[in-house]
């Protein structure tokens, strides 16, 4: 039964992604005519864009605008598409028609040149929470817990969580950039960094839940997953950015690690099991936001941005569990060493 539900879930996700990028909005004749006319005339109604007939970016670097000013400008095609979309959506609203996606995205309202302001804001908060979580983990290990004689931590998974922290912060950084400006390079960097942290999280979940501490065994377990993740990143960057396949890979690895943590929470006697259960159940529910894709409320808050918001408290709780795990393992190891000494 579980296998059947899992198969249906993957098929639904694949279909959703396919429909997302086969957008109806950019196929709309009125929209296409507006964009075509704008790219020639440089105007949408009474609003004109000097960059459509400008060569201001040609010439030595010192004659061009600063990068922070260029970032807020979208160029001729970007501005034409945006304002044609805005006008077309106003027309559809007056006719009582629902919003459409344009070029794979809902009609978001820009703010200070930012394409998806809510997703950017929540991505920044996720980045901050991961930095705070990792920093508090570092302080707990090296300043609050006992250390070995060589000043290293007793906790056997310290290196893995450090790598996880840096990969997570890197992923949320590129999420901020991508949702600020969706272009080919930012899209690929965002997808690649997300795949990297999901793949490494799967490795950590296997090593921790099965309590694998022997280095050779860790390498044997990690190598196939690292090889697959690396191959997938190369595939989407240099062969084909297949959105449906990428979603299936992400969901498969994400669900796999949630099931591993849930199994471990059920059989172990960890004092912070309740935090694991909250994270596992809430993360599973949050994934439904990626399935139930709805247009942005007031032009800002869509399902994806709310998913970003939902992960903020989960990140705080997750790093809290990691700190608790470090304290629990350190305490257990110290008790064992004292027992042996007697």
From TrEMBL:
GO terms for biological process: GPI anchor biosynthetic process. Its main location: Golgi. It holds the Pfam family Per1. It comes from the Eukaryota. Residues 1-22 form the signal peptide. It is a multi-pass membrane protein. The chain crosses the membrane at residues 120-142, 154-177, 189-207, 219-238, 244-262, 274-292, 304-322. It is found in: Golgi apparatus membrane. One of its GO terms (cellular component) is Golgi membrane. Belongs to the PGAP3 family. This is Post-GPI attachment to proteins factor 3.
């Amino acid at each position: 039964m579980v296998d059947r539900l899992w198969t249906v879930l993957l098929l639904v996700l694949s279909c959703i992604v396919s429909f997302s990028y086969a957008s109806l909005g950019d196929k709309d004749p009125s929209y296409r005519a507006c964009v075509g006319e704008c790219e020639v005339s440089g105007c949408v109604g009474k609003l004109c864009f000097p960059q459509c007939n400008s060569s201001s970016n040609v010439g030595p670097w010192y004659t061009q605008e600063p990068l922070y000013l260029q970032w807020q400008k979208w160029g001729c095609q970007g501005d034409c598409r945006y304002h044609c979309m805005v006008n077309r959506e106003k027309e559809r609203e007056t006719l009582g028609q629902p919003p459409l996606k344009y070029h794979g995205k809902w009609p978001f309202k820009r703010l200070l040149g930012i394409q998806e302001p809510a997703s950017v804001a929540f991505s920044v908060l996720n980045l901050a929470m991961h930095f705070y979580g990792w920093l508090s983990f570092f302080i707990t290990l090296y300043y609050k817990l006992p250390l070995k004689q060589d000043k290293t931590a007793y906790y056997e998974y310290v290196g893995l969580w450090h790598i996880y922290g840096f990969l997570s912060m890197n992923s949320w950084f590129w999420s901020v950039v991508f949702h600020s400006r969706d272009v080919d390079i930012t899209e690929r960097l965002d997808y690649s960094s997300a795949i990297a942290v999901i793949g490494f999280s799967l490795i950590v979940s296997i090593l921790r839940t099965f309590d694998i501490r022997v280095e050779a065994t860790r390498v044997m377990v990690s190598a196939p997953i690292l090889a697959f993740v690396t191959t997938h990143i190369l595939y989407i960057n240099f062969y084909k950015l297949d959105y449906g396949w990428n979603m299936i890979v992400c969901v498969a690895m994400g669900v796999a690690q949630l099931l591993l943590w849930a199994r471990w929470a059920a059989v172990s006697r960890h004092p912070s099991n309740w935090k694991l259960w909250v994270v596992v159940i809430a993360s599973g529910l949050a994934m439904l936001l990626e399935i139930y894709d709805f247009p942005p409320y007031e032009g800002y808050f869509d399902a994806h941005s709310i998913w970003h918001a939902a992960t903020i408290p989960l990140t705080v709780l997750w790093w809290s569990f990691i700190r608790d795990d470090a304290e629990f393992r350190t305490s257990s190891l110290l008790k064992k060493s004292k027992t042996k000494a007697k």
